[in-house]
Design a protein that fits this description.
Elements: E1 3-9, E2 23-28, E3 31-35, H1 41-47, E4 54-58, H2 64-67, H3 70-79, E5 86-91, H4 95-102, E6 113-118, E7 123-126, E8 130-136, E9 144-150, H5 159-164, H6 171-177, E10 182-183, E11 189-190, E12 204-207, H7 215-221, E13 226-230, H8 238-243, H9 249-259, E14 263-267, H10 278-285, E15 291-293, E16 300-302
Parallel strand pairs: 3-4, 4-5, 5-6, 12-13, 13-14, 14-15
Antiparallel strand pairs: 1-2, 1-16, 2-3, 7-8, 8-9, 9-12, 10-11
Helix pairs in contact: 7-9, 9-10
């Protein structure tokens, strides 16, 4: 059950020749999700092979570098004869503005588009075995971040123990793994907890969008497998980060450390750093012991199950 992240855009407000404005694509077992859509996102999706079968678009805030790609993306979807509905999630009190952007070309796409407002603590989207939660962030406009959190998985089934207890190979194995007791031919009842281990945690990805470092991110993250955090500036412009409601790489790393994150991806890199991001990496690694990266546009990450389990 692969969980894959593709970084479509990792630049700050101003794009560079190497970095597009913000966009994160997440693929999970055939479901395609998009977080923010800066200018040129549709081209990035073509370039990096994500396709356009996105079912949900999660907008962190309505600054142009996070939403200017929406009209073009919708038009491309329409040209491809899309019929499936698209759900767009946007911060509270911004639906009217986003609706205006969707209709900017004067002709709304033929496929259904549902725009909903989300706020701190909401579940923006609930699927069969995961959900996307919303949390408040600290930017200079109405803004939210999103956490994709999988449900706990069933514990491991101990086949050897089941056979020792006399459970015949076959359907009763499945019933026990599903949590139902089974009765043997001699009347003995075998309970699931005798042969099934403790539930195993699923995976989680947290994306902050643009924000100052906040305690709320720590509360929501709760040991995420991947934290994707604003790191617009390095320490040389820490004051500027505070003034513009952004984070430094070090500030993002402090959040990652306090949240118990396993990996930290630093994004929204200011165009001031076209010469390189060595300072971002060095400063973050001084604070956070986990894996730190500044992804390039097009870079893909596969998020493994906790403990590097394959199933």
């Amino acid at each position: 059950m692969p969980l894959r992240v593709t970084f479509l855009g990792t630049s700050g407000a101003v794009p560079t020749t190497e970095r597009n404005p913000s966009g994160i694509h997440v693929s999970r077992e055939g479901e395609e999700l998009l977080f923010d859509a800066g200018e040129g996102t549709q081209r990035q999706m073509m370039r990096f092979g994500t396709g356009f079968s996105v079912s949900h678009l999660f907008v962190t805030h309505l600054h142009g570098d996070h939403v200017f790609g929406i009209p073009g993306l919708l038009q491309t979807m329409a040209f491809n004869d899309r019929e499936e509905p698209l759900a767009i999630h946007t911060p509270q009190a911004t639906r009217r503005q986003l609706k205006g952007l969707v209709n900017a070309l004067g002709n709304r796409p033929d496929f259904p588009i549902r725009i909903s407002e989300v706020g701190d603590g909401d579940v923006a989207y609930r699927a069969d075995d995961f959900e996307v939660r919303t949390f408040e962030t600290d930017h200079d406009t109405r803004s939210v971040g999103y956490a994709l959190v999988e449900d706990d998985r069933k514990g491991r089934f101990d086949r050897e123990r089941a056979e020792e207890l006399g459970v015949p190979v076959g359907p009763k194995f499945s019933r026990l793994h599903e949590g139902d007791p089974v009765e043997l031919e001699d009347g003995t009842v075998v309970e699931p907890d005798q042969v099934v281990g403790d539930p195993r945690p699923g995976r989680s990805i947290v994306y902050t969008g643009d924000t100052r470092p906040t305690v709320r991110t720590i509360e929501v993250a709760d040991e995420p497998d991947l934290l994707i955090h604003d790191a617009t500036f390095a320490d040389d412009r820490a004051e500027r980060a505070g003034e513009t409601a952004h984070s430094t790489a070090r500030g993002a790393a402090e959040i990652a450390s306090r949240a118990g994150a396993k990996r930290l991806a630093l994004v929204h890199i200011s165009s001031r750093y076209t010469g390189g991001v060595d300072d971002h990496l060095a400063e973050a690694r001084e604070t956070f012991d986990g894996e730190v990266l500044v992804p390039q546009d097009g870079q893909k990450l596969v998020v493994p199950f906790p403990g590097n389990e394959d199933d």
